[in-house]
Amino acid sequence: MLKFWPTTVAFVLGLITFFVFQSSFHFNFWYLIIWIKLYAIIQFCGAYFIGLNFHLTSINSLNTNEKKVLLTFDDGPHTNTVKVLGGLKKHDVKAVFFIIGKNIQGNEAILKQIVADGHQIGNHSFTHHNFIDVWPTKKVSEDFAACQKLIEHYQPNTKFFRPPYGVTNPNIAKALKQLNLQSIGWNVRSYDTSIKDVEKIKQRVLSQLKPGAIILLHDRLDFMPELLEVLIPAIKEKGYSFAEKVN
Ligand SMILES: [Zn+2]
């Protein structure tokens, strides 16, 4: 699998080779453009596809061959989380909730309920800022630490982290190392924030089910309780059970 540093070293060596030998071998200028574009494409994919483990190693699936899957919910706590918790309790399913620090204020009782119901919680940054991927390491680290401090109050020793938007880069990797947090990705993306159609999302998730699947959902969405009401029985009908923890 490609990693950030080896590809960057290879890119720089390629540039040096180009400039050193361009006069002697009459290299075509377009080779340089293709080389830069190739590097840019690799960087883009590495940052935006968490499953590639390009900048850091995330847990993107459960370590099992059994027909077990894990539901994960991002962006709470939110008033909609209450109904999500009700649905999970009704079907006796545990999940992992990745919490945004700034969303805790006013929703403390909901977060308390998540933990009391036996679910795991993890860090999803304090601000979930749109430009967190261009922030320097110090600022990123302070943001993650602020959320960590709050969620440890509810579930001590939690070490799980999900990058906002699933974006990773060298600064985020450094911050997670400093804070000793483990990144958790996914290998089933529901696209629930863009599809917004319960039946289509259900079919999308079912078509990607596999042993050890980690499924990405968002508890803040209005239709999430409705989706769970059809999705959980459909997953069980396919012979799958639900994992209680990441690993
Ligand atoms: Zn998020």
Explained architecture:
There is one protein chain. The protein folds into two domains: 4-48; 68-242, TIM Barrel (Alpha-Beta Barrel), CATH 3.20.20. It contains nine helices and eight strands. It has helices spanning 4-25, 29-48, 81-90, 108-116, 137-154, 170-179, 192-195, 198-208, 224-237, and strands at residues 68-76, 95-99, 120-123, 160-161, 182-183, 188-189, 213-218, 241-242. The strands form two sheets. Strands 1, 2, 3, 6, 7 and 8 form a six-stranded parallel β-sheet that branches. The chain has a two-stranded parallel sheet with strand order 4-5. α5 crosses α6 and α8 (198-208) runs parallel beside α9 (224-237). The radius of gyration is 21 Å and the shape is globular. The two termini are 23 Å apart. The protein binds zinc ion (ZN). The site of zinc ion (ZN) has 5 residues, from β1. Zinc ion is lined by residues 74-75, 124, 128, 164.
Tags for this model:
247 residues, binds zinc ion, 6-stranded parallel sheet, two-stranded parallel ribbon, TIM Barrel, alpha/beta, globular, 9 helices
Described by its quaternary structure, the protein is: single chain
- Mass-distribution shape: globular
CATH class of the largest domain: Alpha Beta
Approximately how much helix is present in the residues? Answer: 40-55%
Bound molecules: zinc ion
Mean pLDDT: 95
Unreliable sequence segments: none
Distance between the first and last residues' Cα: 23 Å
The total of helices stands at 9
